Every structure is written in C-alpha cells, then in structure tokens.
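Case study 2.
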Amino acid sequence: LASRKLPFAKVANKQTVMQRIKAGKMEKFHEDVPKELVELARSAWSLDPSQRPKAAAMMAMIEREQEMQVERQNEQIKALRAQLEQAQRKRLEPASEFQCPITREIMADPVVASDGF
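Prediction:
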C-alpha cells in the first residue's frame, strides 16, 4: 500500500516472490511515505519471527504516526489560515488617497490638493 502498487505485481509466480523475499529483495516505498512507517514495515520483514515487532507494538507505532500526521496537517492549516487572513486584511485596506493624512480616517469625499494631499 505504501508503495502505491501491489507488492511484487510484476513477478510471475509465488515461488519467485518467496525466493526474492528470502534473498532480502523487498519492494521500494513511495518517497512520500513517512520514514517511521518505512522503518516499521522493514522491521516486520525479518525472516526470523522472533525479530518481528508484536502486533500491539505495531499498532501503537501506527497510531502515534497518525497523530503526528494530524498535528502536521493542523499546523499547515493554521499557517494557511494566517496567510489568508493577512491577504484579506491587505485587500480590505483602503488606498491611501481615501485616507485623511492627519487622522487616517476614511474620507467621505476625498479631494487631492495641489501639494498631493
């Protein structure tokens, strides 16, 4: 799933797949898969079952990674909201020609004098 394709999809039969696995030739991960999940998957590939992580430990790691992903997305959303608010404030500010140069209030009937104010 993390590679965005079926494992060993191009291999003709199960025996060849088993030979590749025994030889340590595993599928590559897509570049945007978090490194923690890649490490978790690789730890589960051990040919010695006693070296593989327990299901509960794997679930805990996956849940932590999901929480971290949600936090990263929330931070991105906050940053985008801040950018949007800043852009909206800039858009709503009246041009300086419509502001009184002394009080900075918006003038009802602005007139530009010969000195430019």
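The chain is about 50% helix and 0% strand.
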